[in-house]
Amino acid sequence: MSQVIETLSEKTHSGPEQWRERGEFMELLGHALFVIDESPKQKAADQNLEQPTILLLHGFPTSSWDWQPMWHLLAKDYRLIAVDMLGFGFSDKPNRHKYSIHGQADLIEALVKAKGVQQFHVLAHDYGDTVAQELLSRQFEGGCAGEWLSCCFLNGGLFPETHRALLTQKLLLSPIGGLLNRLTGYAKFCRNFSSVFGAKSKPSKEMLENFWWLININSGKHIFHNLITYIRDRLEHRERWVSAMQQSTIPLALINGSVDPVSGKHMVARYRELNCRLDYLAELPEIGHYPQVEAPIEVATHYQNFLQPLV
User: Fold this and answer.
1) CA 82, CA 59: separation in Å to the nearest integer?
2) CATH number at residue 10
3) Cα–Cα distance between 46 and 32 in angstroms, integer?
4) 282 within 8 A of 235, measured Cβ to Cβ
5) Which domain range does residue 287 map to?
6) Cis peptide before 291, with omega less than 30 degrees from 0?
7) Would you say 85 and 131 are in contact if contact means Cβ atoms under 8 Å apart?
8) pLDDT tens for each residue of 200-234
9) Exposed e or buried b for every residue in 271-280, given b needs 16+ CB within 10 A?
10) pLDDT (tens digit, 9 = 90+) per residue, 263-283?
């Protein structure tokens, strides 16, 4: 599988620097965030139609570049908007800042308003799942920018009771988190990051180097212990966020890598136990925590199958 990923990357994907050239920096709530917004314009012009929009929310500790492996598969039919959230990728990474899921959700709403998007679908992963949960709650309460048409979750800690944090994540959240940041290097990152991938879909050396470069740009690694506080947010707001999924008025989907040690098949089982709305489910038996990177074609196919009746 990793060989397939490398081949796809060589043929259809751009590296992080080329990704940056395709996007823009937007000033939102006092911060510069990197945004990439691409549409199948010619197709829309030929058909005199406005293409449906997908808003993509990435995970921790990576960035919008996570969506690269499957971007071209969705871009033929949809307008795609992805953002590096505050503290990630090419966006601002302020050191003295209280990072929170609510703050990230505010920035996403500011982006939606700035782009003038009225209706859209949401595709989220990991940290982005949690931001999506807060925004979904706002949708349910009637106070969210734009109208959501659907939401699809990839692997993530939707329920704190099933989230099996890595030891590194636990240590980052502890009083020694800042010290751990300074001591953690590329080799340690590679071991930890690769450990959440499936056995047959490990990231290539080039991919690991690119992920590490994106993490470190703008001195980003030094704020890991600030960003990781989202784990506490999940505990504090668990009831509200789970209730929104149980009572959702919009279609919800799960596309999940089953062998993910952090939020794999055990998370899906909990999702079902709690009777959260579920309109589409795809379980990928050999895939880990990053399904959009490990199995981009399979994930894109499932996602399009979910969206087909809705567009």
Assistant:
1) 12
2) 3.40.50.1820
3) 34
4) no
5) 2-310
6) no
7) yes
8) 999 999 999 999 999 999 876 666 767 777 788 88
9) beeeebbbbb
10) 999 999 999 999 999 999 999
Please tell me the distance from the alpha carbon of residue 173 to that of residue 138, in angstroms, as a whole number. 27
Total number of domains constituting the chain: 1
Residues 6+ apart with CB under 8 A from 22: 14, 36, 38
Angle at the Cα of 109 from the Cα atoms of 107 and 111, rounded to 5 degrees: 70
Q: Are the C-beta atoms of 37 and 83 separated by less than 8 Å?
A: no
Q: What are phi and psi of 14, to 5 degrees?
A: -110, 155
- Report the candidate in 224, 227, 3, 283 with the shortest Cα–Cα distance to residue 99: 227
- Given this model, what pLDDT does residue 171 score? 58
Per the listing, tokens 């784990």 go with 231
Distance CA 82, CA 186 (A): 26
- The sign one gets for the Cα dihedral 135, 235, 283, 278 is negative
How far apart CA 111 and CA 97 sit, in angstroms, is 20
Contacts of 173 by beta carbon, 8 Å cutoff, 6+ apart: 165, 225, 228, 229, 231, 232
- Residue ranges for the chain with pLDDT beneath 50: 1-11, 42, 44-45, 48
- Amino acid at residue number 13: H
What letter represents residue 226's amino acid?
A: N
